[in-house]
Amino acid sequence: MKNKVYINEKIYDAENAKVSIFDRGYLFSDGIYELIPYFDKKPFLFDDHYSRLQKSLRMVEINNPYSEDKWVNDIENFVKTCIFENFYLYIQVTRGIPENFDDNILREHAATKNYKTCVTMFYSKIKNLKDNNIIGKKSIIMDDKRWMNCDIKSISLLYNSYAKTIAHKQGAFEAILLRDGIVTEGCSSNVFIIKNNTIKTSPESNLILPGVTRSFVINSVIKDSDYDVREENFSEEELLDADEIFITNSTQGILPITHINNKEINNAECGYITSKLYKIFTEKIN
Ligand code: PDD
Fold first, then answer.
1. Which residues span the domain enclosing 211?
2. Of 49, 106, 139, 179, which is most buried, counting CB atoms within 10 Å of its CB?
3. Which CATH number does the domain housing residue 225 bear?
């Protein structure tokens, strides 16, 4: 494998990349992550991803171990080792391992010690959204059983990955999550519905991840279209009654949803407005 991995300022061949099993990320999911897409080797919306990384760290009170200049420098040097044109950079920062184990306590829930923060990065190949034919995907609906701080990009993705696996087993790509009858977001995406030419998406709150793509679609893509967007809660009924549905995230950009629980949306085709937004979106990539 030609992949490289970054661990705490050093770059390793992927197969030799190792972190301690006493890392609090491994033991308690005590860490956060960020995912930055690169198209034609250029980062897309880097500053927004970096700001969210800083915000997530602040929210879980993990010290940012590097200055912004060091982050930029280390990321630039690391992605130089990537052979792909289109990829995402995965960055994980965990509270790390205790500076010493003098007390012989190897695992304790409360983070009472001094820790060596652990920064890891790797990259993974993705498609260039510009070349991509826009293909609709199926989604199911599931209860949102996550904790109440979904606005933190925490590495604790147990429910997200569980629900997405259920979706996969049912032939769907995503599970759209419902809390008290209200749509929050997808397991790895934000959700937009369109009804009578009006676009709606859940407002930012502790119940959703403030998606970088979501903001870009609202503030840059829809702004340059003939349509308006309302950041408002919407119900399961509104979701099922939508003319068009699409989801957004960093690796897929805008992705039309053509079925919800086997109910066809827009005759199982990507809708007119979604296609227009997709086109504007791809034209704005770098
Ligand atoms: N996930 N909501 C959740 C729960 C997510 O995991 C993601 C992205 C989004 C969209 O955020 P953004 O537009 O910033 O990518 C919303 C990434 C892609 C992942 O975990 O792989």
1. 131-284
2. 139
3. 3.20.10.10
Which protein residue has the closest C-alpha to ligand 1 atom 6?
A: 188
Residue 42 in contact with residue 50, Cβ under 8 Å?
no
- Domain ends where: 92, 126, 160? 126
φ/ψ of 259, rounded to 5, equals -140, 140
Cα(102) to ligand 1 centroid in Å equals 39
Q: What's the pLDDT score for residue 213?
A: 98
Q: Block means of pLDDT (10 residues each) for the chain, length 286 residues?
A: 92 97 98 98 98 98 97 98 97 97 96 97 94 88 98 98 98 98 98 98 98 98 96 98 98 97 96 96 91
The model scores a pTM over 0.85? yes
Residue with CA at minimum distance from ligand 1 atom 20? 188
> CB of 202 closer than 6 A to ligand 1?
no
Contact assessment for residue 256 and residue 245, using Cβ atoms and an 8 Å cutoff: yes
Extended beta strands in the chain, E state: 4-7, 10-13, 31-39, 42-43, 87-98, 115-125, 137-143, 174-179, 182-186, 190-195, 198-201, 228-231, 244-249, 253-260, 263-264
**223 has catalytic annotation:** no
